[in-house]
Backbone:
C-alpha cells in the first residue's frame, strides 16, 4: 500500500537515517523530521508539529533523547493528538525494552485512536559504532554500569526493516514487535568480539553508576548524565536478559548476528585509532 507522504521523526538518528532511504527504495515520498529539516521538527518546540504533519499519512517516531526522559509522555500525548487531527493512517513508535516511561508512551499511543505499530527494541549494536560510545571504543575502554548482565543486542538495520514494513505493508496495525538480536551476550562478551574483529585491545570495565555519572557529566553535561545513568540503573538489572522474536514475526527472517556487525564495522575502519 502506498501512502502520500511518510514523516520520519528523528530522520538524522540511528534508526531514522536508515529508514528514510529504505522508504524511498519502496517508492514512498518521505518528509524528514529533524531540527534542520524543512519544515523543522523540534521536540522542544511543539508549535511547529502541526505544520510538519500536514499532508502526512504515515509517521515514524523516534523520540529524542529517549522515551525514558521525563518529558516523553507529554510530548507523545500531544503528538498523537495532532496526528489524529491530521488524519494520519499509520503511526509507528520506536520504544525501549524495560523502560517504565516507554511503557507509558506505548499506552498513550494505544489509547490514541490512531492505527499504530510499536517496535520495542533492545540495546543497539550501533551504540558501539555511532554516538556516545564510539570514542570509548576507539580509546580501548568501554566503561558501563552493566556488571555481568546479559543483553540481546540488536542491529539498527533490523529495526529499520521492521519499521518500514509497518509503515508500508499490510498486517502490522495494532501489533507490538519486541525486537532483539539472536543471542544473549554480556557486555564483556560483546566487547571481546569487537576487539577480535578490530584486531586490537578493547576492554569492558564494569563501573558503578556514580562513577559512570561523574565521567559522563564531565563529558556531556549533567542533564545527559542524569538521563543515561538513570536509564542504565533501570534496564541493567537483568529484566531484559531474554530474547524475543519480533524481527521474525514482522519480517519472516531471523535478526542479524552481532558477529556480522563486528566484521562489517571493523572493515569500515570506524574503530581504528
Residues:
Amino acid at each position: 500500500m502506498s501512502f502520500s507522504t511518510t514523516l520520519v521523526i528523528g530522520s538524522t538518528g540511528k534508526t531514522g537515517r536508515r529508514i528514510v532511504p529504505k522508504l524511498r527504495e519502496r517508492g514512498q515520498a518521505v518528509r524528514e523530521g529533524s531540527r534542520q529539516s524543512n519544515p523543522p521538527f523540534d521536540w522542544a518546540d511543539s508549535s511547529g508539529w502541526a505544520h510538519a504533519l500536514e499532508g502526512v499519512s504515515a509517521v515514524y517516531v523516534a523520540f529524542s533523547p529517549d522515551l525514558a526522559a521525563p518529558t516523553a509522555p507529554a510530548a507523545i500525548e500531544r503528538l498523537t493528538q495532532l496526528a489524529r487531527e491530521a488524519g494520519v493512517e499509520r503511526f509507528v513508535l520506536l520504544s525501549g525494552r524495560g523502560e517504565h516511561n516507554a511503557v507509558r508512551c506505548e499506552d498513550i499511543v494505544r489509547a490514541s485512536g490512531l492505527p499504530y505499530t510499536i517496535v520495542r527494541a533492545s540495546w543497539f549494536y550501533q551504540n558501539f559504532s555511532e554516538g556516545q560510545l564510539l570514542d570509548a571504543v576507539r580509546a580501548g575502554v568501554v566503561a558501563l554500569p552493566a556488571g555481568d548482565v546479559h543483553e540481546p543486542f540488536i542491529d539498527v538495520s533490523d529495526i529499520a526493516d521492521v519499521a518500514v514494513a509497518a509503515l508500508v505493508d499490510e498486517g502490522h496495525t495494532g501489533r507490538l514487535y519486541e525486537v532483539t538480536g539472536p543471542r544473549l551476550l554480556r557486555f564483556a562478551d560483546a566487547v571481546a568480539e569487537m576487539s577480535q574483529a578490530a584486531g586490537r585491545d578493547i576492554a569492558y570495565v564494569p563501573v558503578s553508576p556514580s562513577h559512570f555519572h561523574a565521567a559522563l557529566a564531565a563529558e556531556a553535561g549533567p542533564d545527559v548524565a542524569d538521563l543515561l545513568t538513570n536509564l542504565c540503573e533501570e534496564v541493567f538489572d537483568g529484566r531484559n536478559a531474554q530474547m524475543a522474536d519480533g524481527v521474525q514475526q514482522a519480517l519472516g527472517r531471523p535478526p542479524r548476528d552481532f558477529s556480522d556487525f563486528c566484521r562489517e564495522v571493523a572493515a569500515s575502519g570506524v574503530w581504528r585509532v
The first strand starts at residue 6 and ends at 9. The CA atoms of residues 8 and 60 lie 5 Å apart. The two ends are 46 Å apart (CA to CA).
